[in-house]
């Protein structure tokens, strides 16, 4: 009996601390500096660990460039097919032509540009999380001790704290938006809806120990516009709603997500599609167009890649979002992988294990750049416009651009690409009339 | 020979391709690589990994096939004069390419086989007649003993001026 009472007391103190130190400041939009202090300690610890690792390494590590993925692990000869084969004594067919395709094939087998984007980025230096321990071995007792302390801190202190916050955040979102949803449509309702959404976002960001740096806030998406960003994880949306209000676009889910969707749509005009509706592209475009045309509605948030990529590159943008019209506000999001891997590898982890991994990482640190608004030019079609926006985002975020479709995570590549290669080669063979 | 870090990297690559997580790769595992799937000779290349009659390749076999593409200068470091010829010697690299053409493994490239490989490379863009002429001319130029097929020796002769070492090598950056 006394044990229960004691536990109750502890629980009450716990909740009071959480409410007072985290929830209340979130509602008021102020910061007590606790996260900053935590981050400072964390950065110092990781710097120390990196130095220890470098000292302890048996062989001197070659100076690795800051972005190893840019160069990859093998030398790639990017000479185009025409030049390389033409170098082989003219454009008549030769047995040696096979070397070109052969080498390209083997290069792709050792390392290809696409499949590596669907798994987490490799770190330059170990960040004291077991999950990122690829090549790092036992170095010293001190390092191991720090690692053990890290495990205890993360699993026994941070995880319960974060789970509590997440629970509070989600519950207040549902309760708050349902309450606001009861009001008749008016500017008061809109204002209150924004307050609720912002507060809950802030609580959720704190639940992930998120440190977000927003750049160029003057370019923040305005009403009646479309906000477009690169996609790494489901928490991208929370990262963005932490700093502004958006109308979400997405498919209706079941379960907890569905409850949240149904509650929030009463307070704020989010655009949720039924599974059957999503297949009809014209319907989707029409509804979004109507939303965008209404200048009093919040900007819609879209992730044109259609799937989560590992934040080292931006893959093909689906043209649908760029056919709606209106002003596009591009946003680049770049996570710092040293503190925690935000990428959701949906073929490897389901959403619950993903959230658990996020909540047992050190922190989520990211940079968000708001880019100047873009409109489709008259001589541009949707695909060219999409590529232009994608370049801007990739350039700002320091990500590489890939013309491949993110859908290749699950689907096979289309035959048309192979046919294109065959066509290019054929053109070379027949060009000089060298046909026998 | 291959450095420790290179082996680690390749093993890491092998396991990331092994979706079934059973220590071997199947043809489907290779076809999941988009850049390989769009390669006109992708199927022939994938086939090179699988020994006769087998549908699975383990890490050992994977490395063995990849070893053909090690740069020849690597051999300078391990001067083993009495050992078997290394897989990445010029001769073995040429043999590897020869086997890409020699579909039925009878140590000769027949007109038919050459036509089939050419068809893979050009797709539907060249007519049968044109392709036939190309095959005829190519065989005629290389055929020395007049049997209308190309043996390995004739193959080597045709390519004697080509820098095979450079074209059939993959260099690691570290």
TrEMBL record, chain A:
<dbReference type="InterPro" id="IPR002123">
    <property type="entry name" value="Plipid/glycerol_acylTrfase"/>
</dbReference>
<feature type="transmembrane region" description="Helical">
    <location>
        <begin position="12"/>
        <end position="34"/>
    </location>
</feature>
<keyword id="KW-0012">Acyltransferase</keyword>
<dbReference type="GO" id="GO:0008654">
    <property type="term" value="P:phospholipid biosynthetic process"/>
</dbReference>
<keyword id="KW-1208">Phospholipid metabolism</keyword>
<feature type="transmembrane region" description="Helical">
    <location>
        <begin position="139"/>
        <end position="157"/>
    </location>
</feature>
<comment type="pathway">
    <text>Phospholipid metabolism; CDP-diacylglycerol biosynthesis; CDP-diacylglycerol from sn-glycerol 3-phosphate: step 1/3.</text>
</comment>
<dbReference type="Pfam" id="PF01553">
    <property type="entry name" value="Acyltransferase"/>
</dbReference>
<keyword id="KW-1133">Transmembrane helix</keyword>
<keyword id="KW-0444">Lipid biosynthesis</keyword>
<dbReference type="GO" id="GO:0019432">
    <property type="term" value="P:triglyceride biosynthetic process"/>
</dbReference>
<protein>
    <submittedName>
        <fullName>GPAT3 acyltransferase</fullName>
    </submittedName>
</protein>
<keyword id="KW-0256">Endoplasmic reticulum</keyword>
<comment type="pathway">
    <text>Lipid metabolism.</text>
</comment>
<dbReference type="InterPro" id="IPR045252">
    <property type="entry name" value="LPCAT1-like"/>
</dbReference>
<keyword id="KW-0808">Transferase</keyword>
<feature type="domain" description="Phospholipid/glycerol acyltransferase">
    <location>
        <begin position="225"/>
        <end position="336"/>
    </location>
</feature>
<dbReference type="GO" id="GO:0004366">
    <property type="term" value="F:glycerol-3-phosphate O-acyltransferase activity"/>
</dbReference>
<keyword id="KW-0812">Transmembrane</keyword>
<comment type="similarity">
    <text>Belongs to the 1-acyl-sn-glycerol-3-phosphate acyltransferase family.</text>
</comment>
<keyword id="KW-0443">Lipid metabolism</keyword>
<keyword id="KW-0472">Membrane</keyword>
TrEMBL record, chain B:
<keyword id="KW-0449">Lipoprotein</keyword>
<dbReference type="GO" id="GO:0005737">
    <property type="term" value="C:cytoplasm"/>
</dbReference>
<keyword id="KW-0519">Myristate</keyword>
<dbReference type="GO" id="GO:0005634">
    <property type="term" value="C:nucleus"/>
</dbReference>
<dbReference type="Pfam" id="PF13499">
    <property type="entry name" value="EF-hand_7"/>
</dbReference>
<dbReference type="GO" id="GO:0005509">
    <property type="term" value="F:calcium ion binding"/>
</dbReference>
<keyword id="KW-0653">Protein transport</keyword>
<keyword id="KW-0106">Calcium</keyword>
<feature type="domain" description="EF-hand">
    <location>
        <begin position="89"/>
        <end position="124"/>
    </location>
</feature>
<keyword id="KW-0963">Cytoplasm</keyword>
<keyword id="KW-0813">Transport</keyword>
<protein>
    <submittedName>
        <fullName>CHP1 protein</fullName>
    </submittedName>
</protein>
<dbReference type="InterPro" id="IPR018247">
    <property type="entry name" value="EF_Hand_1_Ca_BS"/>
</dbReference>
<comment type="similarity">
    <text>Belongs to the calcineurin regulatory subunit family. CHP subfamily.</text>
</comment>
<keyword id="KW-0539">Nucleus</keyword>
<keyword id="KW-0597">Phosphoprotein</keyword>
<feature type="domain" description="EF-hand">
    <location>
        <begin position="5"/>
        <end position="40"/>
    </location>
</feature>
<dbReference type="InterPro" id="IPR051875">
    <property type="entry name" value="Calcineurin_B_homologous"/>
</dbReference>
<feature type="domain" description="EF-hand">
    <location>
        <begin position="130"/>
        <end position="165"/>
    </location>
</feature>
<dbReference type="GO" id="GO:0005886">
    <property type="term" value="C:plasma membrane"/>
</dbReference>
<keyword id="KW-1003">Cell membrane</keyword>
<dbReference type="GO" id="GO:0015031">
    <property type="term" value="P:protein transport"/>
</dbReference>
């Amino acid at each position: 009996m006394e044990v229960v009472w004691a536990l109750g007391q502890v629980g009450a103190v716990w909740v009071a601390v959480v409410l007072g130190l985290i929830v209340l400041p979130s509602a008021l939009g102020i910061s007590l500096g606790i996260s900053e202090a935590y981050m400072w300690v964390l950065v110092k610890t990781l710097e120390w660990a990196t130095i220890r690792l470098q000292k302890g390494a048996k062989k001197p590590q070659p100076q690795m460039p800051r972005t190893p993925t840019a160069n990859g692990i093998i030398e790639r000869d990017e000479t185009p097919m025409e030049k390389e084969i033409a170098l082989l004594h003219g454009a008549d067919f030769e047995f040696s032509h096979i070397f070109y395709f052969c080498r390209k094939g083997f290069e792709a087998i050792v390392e290809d540009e696409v499949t590596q984007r669907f798994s987490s980025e490799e770190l330059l230096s170990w960040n004291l999380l077991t999950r990122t321990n690829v090549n790092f071995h036992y170095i010293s007792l001190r390092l191991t001790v720090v690692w053990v302390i890290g495990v205890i801190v993360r699993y026994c202190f941070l995880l319960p704290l974060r789970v509590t916050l997440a629970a509070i955040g989600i519950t207040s979102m549902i309760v708050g938006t349902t309450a606001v949803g009861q009001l008749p449509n008016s500017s008061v309702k809109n204002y209150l809806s924004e307050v609720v959404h912002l507060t809950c976002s802030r609580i959720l960001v704190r639940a992930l120990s998120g440190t977000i740096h927003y750049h160029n806030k003057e370019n923040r998406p305005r009403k009646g516009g479309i906000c477009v960003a690169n996609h790494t994880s489901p928490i991208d949306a929370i990262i963005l709603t932490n700093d502004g209000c958006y109308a979400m676009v997405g498919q209706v889910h079941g379960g907890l997500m569905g409850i949240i969707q149904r509650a929030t749509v009463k307070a704020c005009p989010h655009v949720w599609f039924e599974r059957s509706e999503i297949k009809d592209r014209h319907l989707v475009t029409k509804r979004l167009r109507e939303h965008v045309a209404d200048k009093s509605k919040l900007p819609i948030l879209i992730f044109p890649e259609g799937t989560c990529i590992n934040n080292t590159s931006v893959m093909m943008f689906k043209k649908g979002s760029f056919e709606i019209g209106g002003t596009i506000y591009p946003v680049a999001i770049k996570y710092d992988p040293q503190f925690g891997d935000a990428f959701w590898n949906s073929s490897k982890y389901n959403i619950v294990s993903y959230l658990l991994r996020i909540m047992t990482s050190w922190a989520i640190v990211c940079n968000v750049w708001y880019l100047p608004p873009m409109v489709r030019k008259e001589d541009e079609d949707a695909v060219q416009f999409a590529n232009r926006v994608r370049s801007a985002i990739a350039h700002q975020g320091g990500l590489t651009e890939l013309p491949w479709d993110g859908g290749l995570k699950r689907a096979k590549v289309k035959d048309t690409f192979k046919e294109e290669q065959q066509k290019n080669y054929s053109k070379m063979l027949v060009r000089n009339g060298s046909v026998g | 020979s291959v450095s420790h870090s290179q082996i680690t990297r390749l093993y890491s690559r092998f396991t990331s391709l092994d979706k079934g997580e059973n220590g071997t790769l199947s043809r489907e595992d290779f076809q999941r690589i988009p850049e390989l799937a769009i390669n006109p000779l992708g199927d022939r290349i994938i086939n090179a990994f699988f020994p006769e009659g087998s549908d699975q390749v383990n890490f050992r076999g994977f490395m063995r096939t990849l070893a053909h593409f090690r740069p020849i200068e690597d051999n300078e470091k391990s001067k083993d004069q009495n050992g078997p010829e290394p897989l990445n010697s010029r001769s073995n690299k040429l043999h590897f390419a020869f086997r890409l053409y020699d579909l039925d493994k009878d140590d000769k490239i027949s007109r038919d086989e050459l036509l089939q490989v050419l068809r893979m490379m050009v797709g539907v863009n060249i007519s049968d007649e044109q392709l036939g002429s190309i095959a005829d001319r190519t065989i005629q130029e290389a055929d020395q003993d007049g049997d209308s097929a190309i043996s390995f020796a004739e193959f080597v002769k045709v390519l004697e001026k080509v820098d095979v070492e450079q074209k059939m090598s993959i260099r690691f950056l570290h």
